[in-house]
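Forum > Structural Biology > Help requests

Title: Can anyone predict the 3D structure of Ribosomal RNA small subunit methyltransferase A?

Hi all, first post here. I have the sequence for Ribosomal RNA small subunit methyltransferase A but no way to get a structure on my laptop. I'd be grateful if someone could post the structure tokens.
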Amino acid sequence: MKQPTLGNPKNTIAVLQKYNFVFQKKFGQNFLIDPHVLDKIIRAAQIGKDDVVLEIGPGIGTMTQYLACAAKKVIAVEIDRALIPILEDTLSGYDNVRIINEDVLKVDIAKLAEEENGGNPIKVVANLPYYITTPIIMGLFENHVPMKSITVMVQREVADRMQAGPGTKDYGALSLAVRYYANPYIVANVPPNCFMPRPKVGSAVIRLERYEKPPVEVKDEKLMFRLIRASFNQRRKTLANGLKNSQELDFEKEVIEEAILQLGKGASVRGEALTLEQFAALSNALAESAWPRHS
Ligand code: SAM
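Reply #1:
Sure, ran it for you. Structure tokens for Ribosomal RNA small subunit methyltransferase A below:
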């Protein structure tokens, strides 16, 4: 198989000029131009010859070339039609790549994993478009896509939120969702000069290793995530008030207060102080008290 040719400024510019490519800001296009960062991502993703990889947003195919060399197969989903002829050119020497011209948020990825890997876990690797990082990650988890891991470039601040623990300013619904589904680990910080054009924010590569089983037992996942959202939507309010005011929930005041008391917490506790285990316990207590009305 051909060795990667992209991943440095000179060759990236040559491809962009050949096709008169115009960057689309609305698609979050910042292409990687640093081979060290690319090597780091591929190593962190632990790609082997048995792996089927989903790449979200291949751009001009830079990381796709690296992935194609390491994996059994790469499925690359790109929204920008203008990039398709470029990808067909830059990936012509690789016979294990399938390019799909689609909005990744509209693709049934679980079905794609079934078609491409017989429902066995895939690995997701991407330099993500930052404007839709959270819906992409949450979609992969919530739709129960069979996967071993997600290794992605995200905005530094989002990587911090994914890894944050209770009581910190970055802790929120995203931190809890990530911890329910996966073990997060920041692989590297990446400065703006590793991209073309340079983004205004710092970036980081984060690896989320999917748990086979969530670390807590939850009777009703949907209810737990509603409770989490309600707690952080009104961050400054007490947990009890946040839950009482939520449009997504309708528990009696006394039921909420009793469930919080059962956690061993005072009436003034805020949601941001609760661990995943405590949200699971709260959710299980409420599910029991009101079941099946709130299912
Ligand atoms: N992987 C390339 C690289 O590292 O050089 C490009 C990464 S760039 C940050 C993000 C890519 O995602 C762009 O190619 C962009 O067109 C694509 N993209 C943006 N929104 C998308 C969507 N909804 N579905 C699929 N691809 C999308």
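DSSP finds twelve helices and nine strands in the chain. The pocket of S-adenosylmethionine is lined by residues 27-32, 56-59, 62-63, 77-80, 83, 103-105, 127, 129, 132 (CB under 6 Å).
Shout if anything looks off.
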